[in-house]
Design goal:
Elements (H helix, E strand, L loop, with lengths): L1 H13 L18 H6 L11 E14 L14 H5 L6 E10 L2 E6 L2 E18 L1 H8 L8 E32 L3 E32 L2 E16 L9 H5 L8 E13 L6 E18 L4 E9 L5 E2 L9 H11 L2 E3 L6 E5 L3 E11 L2 E10 L14 E9 L3 E4 L2 E4 L3 E4 L1 E5 L2 E5 L2 H6 L4 E12 L1
Antiparallel strand pairs: 1-2, 1-3, 1-22, 2-4, 3-4, 4-5, 5-6, 6-7, 6-8, 7-10, 7-11, 8-9, 9-13, 9-14, 10-12, 14-15, 15-16, 16-17, 16-18, 17-20, 18-19, 20-21, 21-22
């Protein structure tokens, strides 16, 4: 399982990756399709008839253990960093690609067609002793003894890829010289690609180390092993995520939003722009020839032992499942589900963009998840709060996003926009100054037509 843990870290070693996609630019005064991703009601605020989104991508990662400098060192050291201290280890890696999209403004209405693809890998609340046992037998080869683990959380290793096509609409409900109110919605067609999940809930057991020979005794845990598509056989290669971003249409979700503006004296700009939204209300069903979703009880009693060294080089969930079944310590508690539904990371979003002085704005943004991350059928998400000062002209913009992420803490970044091209990071400043536990980068291009 060593490579399963290493994947997000290895990807970070070659690409800067944080907590909020497109930090700063997604609430820009130059309203575009990225703003619609936060709140579909923003469609009614478009200043031109057409907005063409060509391409954009954002990569992010956050951890409660691994710092930016650790990513530049030998990868063999990363796992020892991740499984240190008293707190359980958590790490999140995900990428978002926004493909071609178009928005059109017609009188009081706004409409949009957008395309996206996602890839996520998460380590959730993994006990440090268990993580070390599955990844560090060579390091521990001169150690002997036993460690008791009692963890009532659901420890998860989860990976997901999927595509999305969204149809959005918004309407201006009220407008006068001082105020403007909009409402909007997006219907998202979901194309599940590939999925894998390993959950160990209420894990109680003993890890024995006999000079590097690791075994598990006196253990009981509730396990969930689920997989579909490429990730069932190999969880370690980025290509397995990339080539399965879009599967067949098999899911539906919705975004809802409202927006209020307090207008400036000129009537074309605002003093205050406020939005509330609900995102990702729905889920998708995975179907594949190799589909499997099974709940087990792992039960090791008396003098029985399970060899842990055999799992250190496994690549996929199906291989982990085969080894566990061969041990004879797994008891199935449900029938295999050949088709299973996974819930999207449902979110509540809120923001307020305030004009402080001409050309200088400050945006306050928050993202709060609506469901817990420990459910085996739940794609994970994180709670975020950010503050972004912006110097904004018609064709140029500089952003300084500062944020707090529940896993990795505080981050500060920098972003630029020139006409329709933008590039930035929500964490590059703190990553370089204070070796923060998160990193990210984004860039893209769009243009407007009158």
């Amino acid at each position: 399982m060593k490579k399963l843990i290493l994947l997000p870290l290895l990807l970070l070693g070659t690409q800067i990756s944080a907590q909020e996609h497109f930090a700063g630019i997604n609430t820009s005064q130059r309203t575009g399709i990225l703003n619609v991703g936060i709140n579909p009601a923003e469609l009614a605020n478009f200043s031109t008839k057409y907005d063409i989104h060509v391409f954009s991508t954002s990569i992010r990662a956050s951890s409660n253990k691994v710092g930016f400098s650790d990513l530049l060192k030998n990868s063999d050291q990363l796992e020892s960093k991740l499984f240190t201290g008293n707190d359980a280890a958590s790490l999140s890696f995900d990428g978002e690609i926004n493909g071609p999209g178009i928005a059109i403004k017609i009188n009081k209405w706004g409409f949009a067609f957008t395309t996206k693809a996602y890839a996520k890998l998460d380590v959730v609340d993994v006990d440090n002793n268990l993580g070390n046992a599955l990844t560090e037998s060579v390091v521990n080869s001169f150690i002997t003894g036993s460690t008791v683990i009692s963890n009532n959380n659901n420890q998860r290793l989860s990976g997901t890829s999927w595509g999305e096509i969204a149809l959005s609409a918004a309407r201006n409900l009220y407008e006068d010289n001082n105020h403007k109110i909009n409402a909007g919605a997006s219907i998202k067609l979901l194309f599940p690609g590939s999925y894998a999940n390993f959950g160990a809930d209420k894990f109680n057991g003993k890890i024995n180390n006999d000079f590097g020979d690791l075994s598990l005794t006196d253990t009981r845990a509730n396990l969930n092993i689920a997989y579909s598509g490429n990730l069932g056989e190999d969880f370690t290669e980025f290509g397995d995520y990339a080539k399965s971003l879009y599967g067949k249409l098999n899911g539906l979700a919705a975004d809802l939003g409202v927006n209020y503006q307090l207008k400036d004296a000129d009537g074309t700009h605002y003093k205050l722009n406020v939005g509330l939204g609900l995102k990702n209300l729905g889920g998708m069903t995975f179907k594949s020839n190799n589909n499997s979703a099974t709940n087990y009880v792992l039960n090791i009693q008396g003098t029985d032992t399970l060899d842990l060294n055999q799992f250190q080089n496994t690549k996929g969930m199906s291989e982990v499942e085969r080894l566990l079944l061969a041990s004879g310590y797994l008891n199935k508690t449900n029938n295999d589900h050949k088709d299973f539904k996974i819930k999207l990371p449902s979110l509540f979003t809120a923001y307020a963009d305030v004009k402080v002085v001409p050309e200088f704005y400050v945006t306050v943004f928050t993202q709060q998840r609506l469901k817990k991350n420990d459910d085996n059928d739940q794609i994970t998400s994180q709670n975020v709060f950010s503050l972004t000062p912006r110097w904004s002209l018609k064709n140029y913009e500089i952003m300084l996003p500062f944020s707090h992420n529940e896993i990795s803490g505080i981050a500060g970044g920098l972003g630029f926009r020139a006409y329709g091209f933008f590039i930035g990071s929500g964490s590059i400043i703190t990553a370089l100054i204070s070796d923060s536990n998160q990193a990210d980068a984004y860039f893209g291009y769009s243009f407007k037509l009158p």
